[in-house]
Amino acid sequence: MRPYPLLVLLTALFSCASRAEVVAEASSPGKVLRVQLSIDEGRASYSVLRLGEVVIAPSRLGFLLRDTEKLERNLQLASQHSSSFDSSWEQPWGERRHVRNHYSELRVRLSETIKLKRSFDVVFRLYDDGLGFRYEFPQQDQLSDVIIDDELTEFVVAEPATAWWIPAGEWNRYEYLYQRTPLAEVTQAHTPMTIRSESGLHIAFHEAALVDYSGMWLRRTEGQRFRAQLSPASEGWKVRRKAPFHTPWRTLQIADSAGGLYQSDLILNLNEPNVLGDVSWFQPAKYVGIWWELHLDQTTWASGARHGATTENARRHIDFAARNGFRGVLIEGWNVGWDGAWFGNGNDFDFSKATPDFDLRAVAAYAKSRGVHLVGHHETGGAVSHYERQLDAALDLYRALDVDVIKTGYVADAGQIERNDGDGRVHREWHDGQWMARHHLKVVREAAKRRIAINPHEPIKDTGLRRTYPNWVAREGARGMEYGAWGNPPNPPEHEINLVFTRMLSGPMDYTPGILSLQGRGQAIQTTLAKQLALYVLLYSPIQMVPDLPEHYEKHSTAFQFIKDVPTDWAETHVLNGEIGDFVTIARKDRGSDDWYLGAGTDEHGRMLPVTLSFLDPGRRYTAEIYRDGDDAHWRTAPFEFVAEQREVSSRDRLLIRLAPGGGQAIRFKALPMRSRR
Length: 678
Fold this sequence. Notes:
Helix content is 17%, strand content 36%. It is an alpha+beta fold. Strands 6, 7, 8, 9, 12, 13, 15, 16, 20 and 21 form a 10-stranded antiparallel β-sheet that branches. An 8-stranded antiparallel β-sheet has the order 1-2-3-4-11-18-17-14, with no helix packed on it.
């Protein structure tokens, strides 16, 4: 028997003496998860059990409020109500077409027994693969103007665990490499934060439906006890709202495997249904652009002799897109404001005025004549109020030119967003504070009125709002491919494998895979050629960039064929295997055909992964167009070793996926015509 330290024994004795009473509980539809609400001397806490074993130990609920007593003590259960829901809905675009939304709900009202006698609800929604809970503040005279200094929400993980996490509250927003540490060594983390317990259980902590509220970080207070830490506001508080209102959902995705986390639709299901109606005007697609050359420092965003966004260069990229069947062309640096120190200082940007060497209307007309759409670009440099003052005119201009996707940008250090309310002062906000949550939704809503989709970089994190606003199609919010150009260090081979089971659990990412030159600015990208192809399947986005220079794709024409073929919208998605930061294999079915695609990737270690093809449609034969690492491939010494081959397969076959160190494999399963029966 493992010896228990004195502190653990004292804690156990205290727990035995506790007068905590379970006052409400509910189970998920398949009786996999169970939540219990307890009251202990007037303080409320919740616990989560999975198959009878404690996953989340008693964890406190409540708030610190401005200029009034905290809302945590002297609580009693005033009422409770249980219900269930089971329905399905269709994504207009996504990782899968049909989503089942099956949950049990427990709603409890907690009221103070003395003094102010304020009340609030806690709503739990339990799925077999996770749960979400949120607070709801009803209309009440005692608490109408709610100023939240912090949440007291806790997450106490019962079993020792390993965590994959990035720091929150630091200068570089979400753009950090993931750390793998014991959970008890995490300091303050962004979500999603993913953990694996000693017994192998996987849990991802995040939030859903972040609307008019501050983003949640996770701050470890002691041991494996974490508390919600809300992103600050310039006024000093975290959130200010008028009742009635509700918070975002605090979410836990729970699965036996890492792949089970990615298969979960919990985050989407906890968001409200589509409020935009028909959004068939948005077409998932790939795009090229004036982008990678800027990161290579071959051309510049700023005007002058090396300016990248010229009319001539734009036409060259439009021709490349038209020749190869790509719908979009992104042109960064086309507008006035890029000269000088624009980083974190975007007040010179004009979102309707082009530089003298770029004819926006002529370029848009030329793109239209070639069957290509421009992808708009609005970089704010963090001057968000300045951008909002021009927003209507900028969106109207793009609408008039048939620009139906915009990449926005918020390049500024965390905590340095410029907010100007017209009072003569510049207020500084965080990228994930309440003010920026409002801003992003304003941009998305205004863009939707003009049938424009939004893809923000340096964004607020994804919390599934693409279900409610399907024109919010992707975002960055992690360390992207540009770090392969100039990152110090560049992204290591494990980075994208980490992303699948961390950042990608929140939603689509504009990672910009597909650098077939494998070369950054004086440094090699830590990958093989085949892995760059696999990333188009592994890292989902409905708008995938084809970012390398056109001449590099022409040089690697065989590998380029997969990039031309791979879709950006899927009918089904299956995680075939995977371990966080080690390896992963994902199969997806094209929504527009009977073809399937497979992507596999690994970290710095080579792998031999057996894969059954049971996901293929039964009774159908396919040509497997395989793009794999060569026998001597290695991300460090032989990254271009590459083989393209074909074989005929069916759902009864098995493949042995060979991955070089730092490598990958991409396969197109091209459906053969059905044989007629005689």
